[in-house]
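Notes, Module 5: Reading structure tokens.

Key idea: the token line is not a picture. It is a compressed description, and you learn to read it the same way you learned to read a sequence, by spotting repeated patterns. We will look at two proteins. The first is printed below with its tokens.
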Amino acid sequence: MPLRSNWSTATCPIARSADVLADPWVLLILRELFSGRSRFDELRDATGAADSVLARRLASMGEAGLVAHGDPGYRLTDAGRETLPILHAYARFTSTTNPDGSWGLTVSCGRCGEATASADWCATCAAPLDADSTRWTRRSMGGEPFALTSGDAA
């Protein structure tokens, strides 16, 4: 999945992770899988990716162990679910660098209901933010909080 260079054999863990995750399409596909979309057409429509682009990225994500394909669609694997704090960090970065943007993703703890500024931990109730305990509010999806899909079921 590298954009410019192949870092799959690099000794640096950040370079190796970038080899898999630094593709913008991969990040958008992960976002949509966490949001509950699992079928190819849903992922295509939500990301705006061409069929060929989406098919290549899903195949690469499968080879990297991030997603599995089954009936009726794709699901996150354990490794795929581990990317959630990375998506949270991206959302936090954007809200910090452009807080008045027309987009928005608010990350909240599903246990206590409080919005969090952390990528992986709720500062209010001191619990980890994983797919089973996190709520997102996406302006692009109507602005109502919703539970994430943990990927356990296709």
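Here is the second protein, with the sequence above and the tokens below, as before.
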Amino acid sequence: MEAFLISTGLVSIAEIGDKTMLLAIMLAATWRRPLPIILGILAATIANHAVAALAGSVLARFMDAGWLRWGVGVAFIGFAVWALIPDRFDEKPDVTEKTFAGVFWTTTAAFFLIEMGDKTQVATAMLAAQFHNLPLVVAGSTLGMMLVNAPAVLLGEAAARKLPLSWIRLAAALGFAATGVWVLLAR
């Protein structure tokens, strides 16, 4: 359960204020179709984080345990710094296709692509390398993404205006830093 709970917590904190959360708000404000948007986010996250966790698991098999520990620890400390940098989202979605399937597939494709190389995807890979439990890491990171993005879709733009994103970024940075230090010091 440790892999699941830590993955859920870290990814959900890191996702707050992230570009994919901003995309969720923008899609909800544009299309006002929460169900296909939420399902598209879920499908994209499962696919993207499964690939990331698989990559992290493969990395863990080929690296010496000591080097892996240092790599994961330093990566999480790097995520702490990265979490302090605000994301920007400047593109507007194509609003011509508003059917359930159109909104679902557009959301799925947009989320899958925008999540590539994102801190939550990289964190998922590092968590999989650390915990050696691909299903629980993917389930936890997916739940973490959904805990943030589903309310973002449902609450829309109003919720984003009320959240002090600088404080949330700081909380994400502290969580990543604490995890990095824990990985480096744990034996």
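Summary for the second protein:
- The longest helix spans residues 34-62.
- The chain has a mean pLDDT of 79.
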